Amino acid sequence: MPLYDYAPTSGHCDRCHGRFEVHQRIADARLTKCPTCRQPVERLISPVKVGGKYSTSDSRVKELGLTKYKKAGDGVYEKTSGKGPNLIGPKSK
Fold first, then answer.
1. Are residue 63 and residue 41 in the same domain, yes or no?
2. Parallel, antiparallel, or unpaired for β 20-23 and 41-43?
3. Burial class of residue 24 in the structure, from the number of CB atoms within 10 Å of its CB (0-12 exposed, 13-18 middle, 19+ buried)
4. Does residue 32 contact residue 42 with C-beta atoms inside 8 Å?
5. Same domain, yes or no: 41 and 63
6. pLDDT score for 93
7. By C-alpha distance, which of 58, 69, 22, 67 is closest to 42?
8. What is the per-residue pLDDT for 20?
9. What SS3 state is found at 42?
10. Across the 93 residues of the chain, what is the mean pLDDT of every consecutive 10-residue run?
């Protein structure tokens, strides 16, 4: 089951320390209130963690036929390996 992070919509709570995790099925409804303090909560988006035996090196990414980008500015990403456009970002005016 996925682990979801929640936080009070006010951003602060002294009783539940402002953030908590819940194991839920994907089909389960989102929580609307904290089980500890009963404040309204929102589900947070957490970054995906890639680790273990998986490599994200430029050579491995290219070998798999993928493209890797790094942030080059505000909303602009520059290609570091693989096929694809050299830059991704807002259209130039």
1. no
2. unpaired
3. middle
4. no
5. no
6. 43
7. 22
8. 85
9. strand
10. 84 77 88 87 77 78 88 89 87 53
The pLDDT value given to residue 92: 47
Shared domain for 16 and 39, answered yes or no, is yes
For the whole prediction, is pTM greater than 0.85? no
**Structural domain of residue 20, as residue ranges?**
1-45
Regarding whether 34 and 62 lie in a shared domain, the answer is: no
The token duo for 73 is 């500015």
Cβ proximity of 36 and 16 under 8 Å:
yes
Q: How far apart are CA 70 and CA 53, in angstroms?
A: 22
Give the three-state DSSP class for 23. Answer: strand
Domain count along the chain: 2
The answer to whether 10 and 39 have CB atoms below 8 angstroms apart is yes
